[in-house]
Amino acid sequence: MTDALIKLRDIRRTFHLGEIDLQVLRGISLDINRGELVSLTGPSGSGKSTLMNILGCLDRPTSGEYWLDGVETSGLSNDRRAMIRNQKIGFVFQSFNLLPRTSALEQVMMPLAYTASGLSEREAKKRAVALLDRVGLAQRLDHTPAQLSGGQQQRIAIARALINHPPVLFADEPTGNLDSKTTNEILAMFQALNADEGITIVIVTHDPFVASHTKRNVHLIDGLIDSDTPNERMARLTAGEAAQRAPASMSPSATGATP
Ligand code: ADP
Ligand code: MG
After folding, report:
1. What is the pLDDT of residues 52-67, one digit of tens each?
2. Three-state DSSP class for residue 156
3. What is the spatial distance between Cα 47 and Cα 49, in angstroms, rounded to a whole number?
4. CATH 3.40.50.620 is right for the domain spanning 34-57+82-250
5. I need a surface site. Which of 116, 126, 206, 228 has the fewest CB within 10 A?
6. Is 168 helix (H, G, I), strand (E, B) or coil?
7. CA 243 distance to own-chain centroid
8. Phi-psi region for residue 29, left (φ > 0), alpha (ψ -120 to 50) or beta?
């Protein structure tokens, strides 16, 4: 028995393209424990997004086992996997995936409509406001995406991903559309959420700079794990240091939490 939040055993994924079988994942075994901050890197076409779709219960492996928080998910029905997705997983995408003409507050509250959260409208709103405050957007509740910068839009997406208090956040190229300053800001945000709240985070990236800001790097080549390397420097980063790296508006003290 391990305490792994994520446990992959010999995951394979083959796509059938007419006569051709394309083996994209060729036997991935991996454990990720609670509280880890992991980057998943690899050349274009190495299977990062395919693996992420399986981790996010958006897709099923052709064979192999995927245990998430003690539940083997690969054999579950679509409905059960959708339920797990809503309760246990937050997603952040390269393109933010926000709705146009919808306020920041409404975007963040939206996933609550798909879970039996039991929250009243008032409680739901309170939770969403607290999260927007956490990501430094307390002053932007009524703004629509068009009125916000890319970094601010991604922070809305992060708040939305956390509304159901999932144990794990998956981010696929979350800084792919952002400049270097904003990339730093979003990385500091992930580090602070990981250090302060213990949220497990897996970031898919092609950017070595992003990977160097995680505590562990898993590198894929041709659908197999090529290397799995701890990042000692990042692993030593304490919650206080992570908070210091984050802009003032994102530090826990700005949300009234005691350090
Ligand atoms: P990465 O994210 O590392 O760039 P992907 O996981 O997106 O790689 O893709 C890996 C390979 O799998 C690519 O050759 C891609 O064309 C193929 N692939 C991905 N998804 C599908 C699909 N739904 N159907 C067929 N081929 C796919
Ligand atoms: Mg990809």
Report:
1. 999 999 999 999 999 9
2. helix
3. 6
4. no
5. 116
6. strand
7. 19
8. beta
Q: Which amino acid is at 208?
A: P
Shortest-distance ligand to the CA of residue 93: 2
Is the CB–ligand 1 distance for residue 21 below 6 Å? no
Six-digit token pair at 168? 């794990």
Q: Give the C-alpha separation, 122 to 183, whole Å.
A: 33
**Close Cβ partners of 105 (under 8 Å, ≥ 6 residues apart):** 125, 128, 129, 132, 141, 142
Alpha-carbon distance 32 to 216, whole Å?
Answer: 10
Best residue among 12, 14, 15, 204 to mutate for probing ligand 1's pocket (most ligand atoms within 8 Å of CB) is 15
User: What confidence tens digit (pLDDT) does each residue in 69-106 have?
Assistant: 999 999 999 999 999 999 999 999 999 999 999 999 99
47 C-beta closer than 6 A to ligand 1: yes
3-class secondary-structure state, position 66: strand
DSSP code at position 220? E
